């Protein structure tokens, strides 16, 4: 793969890479490297970096744009914007799947259209831009390729509550549903307080307190979203 093959992508994101090898690494899926036994690093570390940079950029953007929102509101909206389905949409818009190096099995299994794989590739691209160009360039890419998909939601807030968002994200990531458990109840019957914890794959991800089980679950879901996004 050479720089010319990336011309359309680079034009769409408005970036000129100083080191094209970093860009090329974005598209090396682990399955391909395992199959051809090449001594090249996969895109997984770039994905890890891109995930963190994405969270920072979206957090700052929402903090600046939605000044009246509480921490819980901001967390819920951020989770909605950076979930797998959202990132896969941005990846499809850039046609990132067409650049991927995949194993034969991954290719035959529809890897180029796999939402999780596409979302991971988008994060790897952001990681590569950060390494090569810095944070300001990452902001440019996100503002061009991701935020326009969610103008309505960013203006009016996410269409779902925290529990619904958490349910969708956990099913995307882990193929299971989060589990809620009442840890403690306090107070008389007319003024009870519920302490609820939410678990994912047996691990506690958040706690919430409320005058009803539903309110406590919503708070625990918000805390879990903060950890996951």
Protein model, in words:
The protein is mainly alpha-helical and 229 residues long. The protein has 2 domains: 3-156, Ribonuclease iii, N-terminal Endonuclease Domain, Chain A, CATH 1.10.1520.10; 162-227, Double Stranded RNA Binding Domain (2-Layer Sandwich). It is 59% helix and 10% strand. It contains 12 helices and 3 strands; from the N terminus they run αααααααααααβββα. The chain has helices at 7-13, 20-25, 30-36, 44-65, 71-82, 84-94, 104-108, 115-133, 135-145, 151-156, 162-174, 213-228; strands spanning 179-186, 193-200, 203-210. Strands 1-2-3 form a 3-stranded antiparallel β-sheet, with helices on one face. A hairpin with a 6-residue loop joins β1 (179-186) and β2 (193-200). α4 (44-65) crosses α5. The longest helix is centred in the first third of the chain and has 22 residues, at 44-65.
The rounded Rg comes to 20 Å
* Outline: elongated
CATH T-level fold name of the largest domain = Ribonuclease iii, N-terminal Endonuclease Domain, Chain A
Q: What is the CATH first-level class name of the largest domain? A: Mainly Alpha
Q: Helix count, per DSSP?
A: 12
Structural class: mainly alpha
Q: Distance between the terminal alpha carbons, to the nearest Å?
A: 33 Å
Instruction: Write the CATH architecture name of the largest domain.
Output: Orthogonal Bundle
Strand order of the largest sheet: 1-2-3
Count the beta strands: 3
- The CATH superfamily of the largest domain bears the name Ribonuclease III domain
Spell the H/E element sequence: HHHHHHHHHHHEEEH
Percent helix among the residues? 55-70%
Q: Overall mean pLDDT score?
A: 90
Low-pLDDT runs of 5+ residues are none
Major beta sheet, specifics? 3 strands, antiparallel
Overall number of domains: 2
**Beta fraction of the residues?**
5-15%
Protein name: Ribonuclease 3
GO molecular function: double-stranded RNA binding; identical protein binding; metal ion binding; ribonuclease III activity; rRNA binding
Domain RNase III: 6-134
InterPro entries: dsRBD_dom, RNase_III, RNase_III_dom, RNase_III_sf
């Amino acid at each position: 793969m050479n720089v010319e093959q990336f011309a359309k992508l680079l034009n769409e994101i408005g970036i000129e890479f100083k080191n094209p090898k970093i860009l090329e690494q974005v598209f090396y899926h682990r399955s391909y490297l395992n199959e051809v036994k090449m001594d090249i690093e996969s895109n997984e570390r770039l994905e890890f970096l891109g995930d963190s940079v994405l969270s920072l950029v979206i957090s700052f953007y929402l903090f600046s744009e939605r000044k009246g929102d509480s921490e819980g509101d901001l967390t819920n909206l951020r989770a909605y914007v950076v979930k797998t389905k959202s990132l896969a949409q941005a990846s499809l818009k850039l046609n990132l799947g067409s650049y991927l190096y995949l194993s034969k099995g991954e290719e035959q299994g529809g890897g180029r259209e796999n939402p999780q794989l596409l979302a991971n590739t988008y994060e790897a691209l952001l990681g590569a831009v950060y390494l090569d160009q810095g944070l300001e360039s990452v902001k440019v890419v996100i503002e061009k390729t991701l935020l326009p998909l969610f103008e309505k939601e960013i203006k009016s807030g996410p269409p779902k509550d925290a529990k619904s968002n958490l349910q969708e994200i956990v099913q995307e990531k882990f193929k299971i549903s989060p589990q809620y458990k009442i840890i403690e109840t306090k107070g008389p019957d007319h003024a009870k307080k519920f302490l609820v914890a939410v678990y994912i794959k047996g691990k506690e991800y958040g706690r919430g307190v409320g005058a009803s089980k539903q309110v406590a679950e919503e708070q625990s879901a918000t805390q879990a979203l903060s950890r996951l996004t």
